[in-house]
Amino acid sequence: MIASTRQTDQLPGTSPDARPPGRRWQRELADAITDPAELLAIAGLGAEWLDPARAAAARFPLRVPRAFAARIRRGDPTDPLLRQVLPLGVELEDTPGYVSDPVGDLTSVAAGGVLRKYAGRALLVTTGACGIHCRYCFRREFPYAEQLASARHWSDAVAAIATDADAHEVILSGGDPLSLADHKLAELTSALAGIPHVHRLRIHTRQPVVLPSRVDDGLLAWLRGLRWPVAVVLHANHAHELDAAVADALARLRGAGATLLNQSVLLRGVNDDVDSLATLSETLFATGVLPYYVHALDAVRGAAHFDVPDDEARALHDRLVAALPGYLVPRLVREVPGAAHKVSIASGGSSTAG
To answer: Which pLDDT tens digit goes with each residue over 252-294?
Structure first.
C-alpha cells in the first residue's frame, strides 16, 4: 500500500489543532486531498498506481474532500466513488473526437461570464473553484481566468442579463457556485433582484453531496432571503455518495424552501448497470430529491475511458423505465453544441428542454 505523504502547514509554536479562521466548510475545503499518494493510501492501493496518477494530476489536479474520501471502499480499485476522482494514466491518451470544449461553452459567451445556451435562461460561470475534481468534468480545460461572472464584482454579468428581457431564469454554475462565500452569493443575488424579468434562480452544485458541511446556517439564511423560487440541481452519480451527513444537508436545503433535483452522468465502471441507476433514484427520492437527468458523457479530452455508447445507454434506460415508476426515471440526454436544449437519446425519445 502507498504510505501517505500529506504535509501539515503547522507553524512553530502552534498546536496541531490550530486552524485558520473561517467556517467549518471552508476549512474542510482547504484541507481537501490533493496528493495522489495520500488518496491511494486512503484507498488502500499499491505503489503501481502512483506514477500514472501523478502524471494525470499534473494535467488536471486532484482534489477530493475528506468527507467524500471517507465513503470510498478500501482496497477496491473499482469502487465507484474512487473511480470518479482517481487520476489514471489513460487520461493522457489522445482519443479522436474528445476535445477541450465539448459542449460549445466558448461559442455561447454573451458577456462577462454569461453563457446564453438555452431559451429563457442565462447561465453564470460564477467561479472556477470546485469542492471536488471529477475526472470526467466537461469544464476541466475551461479558461476560468478569462470567463468569470464575478469579475468586476458581477457588474458586466448583471448588466448583460438586465438588457436581455428573455432571461427569465438565472442558472448559477461554475466550477461550483457554493464554493463562493455567503457574502459573495448575497452580493450577486442582491444585484439580480433589481431585474424585474428574472423570475427563477437555479443553482447547479455538487457541494452538498461531497462537502455537506457547506449547508450551514449562513447558506440557509441566504436561501431563505431570496425573492425567487429556487431549484438546487445536485450532482450524484452513485447511491454510495449519499450518506447520513448528506441526507441531513439535503433536508436542511428543503427546509429552506429549495426544490431539489439531481443530474448524474452515465459513467463506465461507476453506474453503467441498471441496479446502480435504480438504487441511486430510490435513494435520492428517500432523501427528498427527484431524479432529473442522466447525461451521456460529454466528450472532454481525458475522459474517453468513461464512455458508454448510446445503444448501451438506451438499453440501460429502457430497463430502468421497466423497473421504476416514471417519476423516479431521469431523462437520458446529451448536450449537443449549438442546440437550444438538451437532446433526448432515449428509445423513442424526442428533444427535451434543459
So the answer is: 999 999 999 999 999 999 999 999 999 999 999 999 999 999 9
Q: Which of 216, 217, 215, 248 is nearest to 232 (CA)?
A: 215
**Distance from first CA to last CA of the chain, Å, rounded?**
44
How is 165-206 classified by DSSP, letter by letter?
A: TT--EEEEESS-GGGS-HHHHHHHHHHHTT-TT--EEEEE-S
Task: State the amino acid at position 284 in one-letter form.
Answer: L
Give me the residues paired with residue 198 across strands.
none
Q: Give residue 327's pLDDT.
A: 97
Per the CB < 8 A criterion, the answer to whether 243 and 71 are in contact is: yes
For the chain, what's the residue count? 354
In the Cβ-directed half-sphere of 92, how many Cα atoms lie within 13 Å?
12
B/e letters for 29-62, b = 16+ CB within 10 Å, e = fewer, are: beebbebbbbbbbbbbbeeebbebbeebbeebeb
Q: Name the DSSP letter for residue 73.
A: P
Question: Counting beta carbons within 10 angstroms of the beta carbon of residue 179, is it exposed (0 to 12), middle (13 to 18) or buried (19 or more)?
Answer: buried
**Cβ atoms 100, 59 nearer than 8 A:** no
SS3 301: coil
What gap in Å lies between CA 258 and CA 256, rounded to an integer?
A: 6
Average pLDDT rounded to a whole number, residues 161-174: 96
pLDDT digits (tens, 9 = 90+) for 218-262: 999 999 999 999 999 999 999 999 999 999 999 999 999 999 999
Chain segment 122-160, per-residue pLDDT in tens = 999 999 999 999 999 999 999 998 888 887 789 999 999
In contact, 64 and 33? CB cutoff 8 Å: yes
Q: Which three cell numbers stand for residue 339?
A: 442546440
Please tell me the distance from the alpha carbon of residue 289 to that of residue 214, in angstroms, as a whole number.
18
Contact predicate 65/211, CB 8 Å: yes
